[in-house]
Amino acid sequence: MPVTQQYIDEIREIVAEALEIEPEEMTETSSFVDDHDGDSLRAIEILARLEKRYGVEIPQSELPKMGNLRAVYDVVAERANWDS
Predict the structure, then answer these.
(1) Does pLDDT of 83 surpass 80?
(2) Which residues contact 48 (CB under 8 A, 6 or more apart)?
(3) CA 67, chain centre distance (Å)
(4) What superfamily does domain 3-80 belong to in CATH?
(5) Which residue positions does O-(pantetheine 4'-phosphoryl)serine occur at (predicted)?
(6) pTM for the complete prediction?
């Protein structure tokens, strides 16, 4: 499995747990708010879980960008320097 897909799958598990949904219910582009009833409290919980799991700091100012799985991956990958 490509590393990128492995990270996406891990992030999917983390986000699904925080949103209290099954990972299979979430696509890379489904909206956490519109499709999965996410709210700001859950967004902060997702942020905290990602920071702990990957040892990165993600400013809360990034939260508006993190509306779906692909966007979350992009933000975490940038902070964790996965692409370099």
Answers:
(1) no
(2) none
(3) 8
(4) ACP-like (1.10.1200.10)
(5) 40
(6) 0.92
**DSSP label at residue 55:** T
Q: Is the pLDDT of residue 84 over 80?
A: no
Q: Give the CA angle between residues 70, 76, 82 to the nearest 5°.
A: 100
C-beta separation of 18 from 48 below 8 A: no
CA atoms within 13 A on the CB side of 49: 17
Q: Which is nearest to 11 in space by CA: 43, 41, 50? A: 50
pLDDT in tens, 13-56: 999 999 999 999 999 999 999 999 999 999 999 999 999 999 99
DSSP-assigned states of every residue in 21-40: S-GGG--SS--TTTTT---H
Identity (one letter) of the amino acid at 63? L
CB contact at 8 A, 47 and 64: no
Q: Which of 15, 70, 75 is nearest to 83 (CA)?
A: 75
